[in-house]
Amino acid sequence: MSAHEDERLHRLLRASLATTMDAAASRDLWPDVLAGLDQRPAFSRMDKGLFAALVALGMLLPESILLVMYSL
Q1: What is the 3-state secondary structure (H, E, C) of 10-59?
Q2: Whether 65 contacts 58, CB under 8 Å
Q3: Residue-wise pLDDT tens digits, 13-29
Q4: Residues 50, 55, 58, CA angle at the centre, nearest 5°?
Q5: Tell me, what DSSP letter sits at residue 72?
Q6: What three-state secondary structure class fits 64?
Q7: In whole angstroms, how far apart are CA 54 and each of 29, 57, 70?
Q8: pTM for this prediction
Q9: CA–CA separation, 52 and 43 (whole Å)
Q10: Angle of CA points 20, 25, 31, to nearest 5°
Q11: In angstroms, rounded to a whole number, what is the distance separating the alpha carbons of residues 5 and 10?
């Protein structure tokens, strides 16, 4: 790279970093993080369906249990 290209790259990096460093959050997000940690995670329909499919697969094809355990 030439010195001109290096200088151009430095200017572009400084310009892009300056805009991100100046941007501030509109509010404090830490209380939301703490509230999310206090909540108990809920299982969705997809989670329950996948679990039921794994149980059914294990009952129909017992040798597949080792394959499922290996993939975890």
Answers
A1: HHHHHHHHHHHHHCCCCCCCHHHHHHHHHCCCCCCHHHHHHHHHHHHHHH
A2: yes
A3: 888 876 655 566 678 88
A4: 125
A5: -
A6: helix
A7: 38, 5, 14
A8: 0.44
A9: 13
A10: 140
A11: 9
Residue whose entry in the numeric block shows the structure tokens 């989670």: 47
One-letter identity of residue 6? D
What number of residues does the chain have?
72
Pairwise CA distance, residues 10 & 16, whole Å: 10
Amino acid at 24: A
Q: Which two tokens stand for residue 66?
A: 């080792």
Residue 55 tokens, joined: 């149980």
On the question of pLDDT at 56 being above 70, the answer is yes
What letter would DSSP give residue 62? Answer: T
Q: Hey, what are 14's tokens?
A: 């400084």
pLDDT tens-digit profile of 32-47? Answer: 888 888 888 889 999 9
